[in-house]
Design a protein that fits this description.
With about 450 residues, the protein is an all-alpha fold. It is built from 22 helices and no strands.
Amino acid sequence: MTEAIPLPMVAFCIGVIALMAGIVDRNSVAALYWSDATWFIMGSLMFATAFVKTGLDKRIAMMMFGNLKHPDIKWVTLIIILTVSPLTMFMSDHALAAMFLPIGIILYSGTVNVSGKDDPELAKILMMTIAMAGNLGGSLAPSGGARNLIMMGYTEDMFGISITFMQWVIYCAPFLLFLMPVTWVVLNWRFHPRQRNLANALTLVKTEVKKVRGGAWTWPERISVVIFLVTLFAWITENNLILKLTGIRFGIGVLAVMGGIAYVFAGVVNWRDYQTNIDWGVVWLYAGAIIFGRVLMQTGAAYWLARTVLRLTMPLGFGEGLGLLLSGSVIVGLITQLMADGPACAAVGPVTMAMAGITHPGTSMIPFMAMSTSIASSFAYCLIIGTPPNAIVYASGYLKAKDFLRTGVILWFTNMAGLMLLSATYWRWLGFSGLPNY
């Protein structure tokens, strides 16, 4: 939190300290850094680099306003949420926030320049909409972030239970139908811009649309989309069709890196693009967080912490069933305000999974706890440091730290309640294949 040394260096220190303490040896420490989740982070950043270089990011971002007929701010924010949130299931949240931030700035500056009057509330609602939309969908599909692969890995390593790509989507994606309207209502309730008609600004945006869409799709844009769709298909079928055809369990992370390699072979990007445009410190940050979680698992510390938490929550009625899911989700939902979602899952995931294994061994509680832990880690609405989209929009200069609390606290409670509703109804109704209900 203090960043006394750079965060990627902290990631390396975790492995060094584990080695010096005798917890791991020199061979296993290297292997722990290169998990499937680490490969996935590298691959997703490669995809973002290819999209930005080809201009595909601008094409996606601009097209959504091309046919907007009602320029009121409430409809503009709705379009942003409906566009960004589903995309976060397949693209990194920070890449999407960076893509849409210029659009928000154009909408604000175009409006106030014509009127000649500043409207801070207008800037805030646009910036906050981009940030909150970027936080909604990433945990609802394995391709949305490393936290999902981390929890899938813990489930398989600790209990031998495998969650496929499509299973994760079937259980989690419907939650987006709750998150999007709630977020839209809260944002428009908490911010009250004086200038609600953005017609003048949308004229500027549509001019940019014509620049992007005026010509035919370029070959790099087309091949970028094709590679992405092929990779998406591979993610979905990785545990069934591809496994049957090849006899190899590639893992979603390896497939993501294969997509990154395909961009190089296709001539869309070169290694210099990856070298200069990818923040490799982020990769190592996730790798360090993952090794921390693995150490908790291997030493038994995760189970010790789980038993300690259960001793505290049992007398309160939160030590089993839906109460247990709530306890695990609240713990992760609070910690994720202080660190990124992936490291939060990597550090706390073994504990919440151990809580599920101790109380409801061999039941659907185990995969449900994995999914709820990942979803709760995306509730980083309250602080700037909680998630990259928050930090990116804050860097625009239009927001203050307290603006995140204006909406974040409310969304934290509403979405936590929504997660428990999803768990108690939809998940219980579906059950989990091969496992008895808890």
